[in-house]
């Protein structure tokens, strides 16, 4: 899709002893570790039931759902996970309106004409890929130093931890949550030229022979 490779993995579940299924699940988990974008398919009715009845946010539901699939959300930090609500054709008009208010969740069904659901879904999916990978035919700025890449990766981790942990309705302490954003900002500052004390010491001990 738009020049990006895609992998359709085996379904993940914990309750199986079949050797073929277990091998498929193991390979699927390996793919997740190497993926940049993970499409997490869930039942639309189950998603709405947890959000409306259990008062869960979509992010908290996603975390719990990953646990149900025997996946550690902490190991997926730094990866883009897109939650997709499947079988929306089974929802009532009222429930469809509720689901439409959750912008972070993509909606899909194969029971309706492609022009109504599937094509808009694919357009949104392509947009995600462009955001993540850019335009394959266009020229993009390159990371010229390993240190820049390291700082960008750290920045990405801090931002994902913030998005994963910060829930105003459950844990409203913005001061603690904001520290993750400050950490992310410091990573960017180390690239743009706002040099820290640690950076200076690293250069001194790397480029100069101390003690001679």
Automatic annotation (TrEMBL):
Q: Which residues form the signal peptide?
A: none
Q: Where is the MnmE helical domain?
A: 38-209
What's the gene?
GTPBP3
**In its UniProt record, which GO terms are filed under biological process?**
tRNA methylation; tRNA wobble uridine modification
Q: Which Pfam families match?
A: MnmE_helical
Annotated protein name in UniProt: tRNA modification GTPase GTPBP3, mitochondrial
Q: Which Gene3D superfamilies match?
A: P-loop containing nucleotide triphosphate hydrolases (3.40.50.300), tRNA modification GTPase MnmE domain 2 (1.20.120.430)
**PANTHER family according to UniProt:** TRNA MODIFICATION GTPASE GTPBP3 (PTHR42714), TRNA MODIFICATION GTPASE GTPBP3, MITOCHONDRIAL (PTHR42714:SF2)
Question: What superkingdom heads the lineage?
Answer: Eukaryota
- Cellular component GO terms held in the UniProt record: mitochondrion
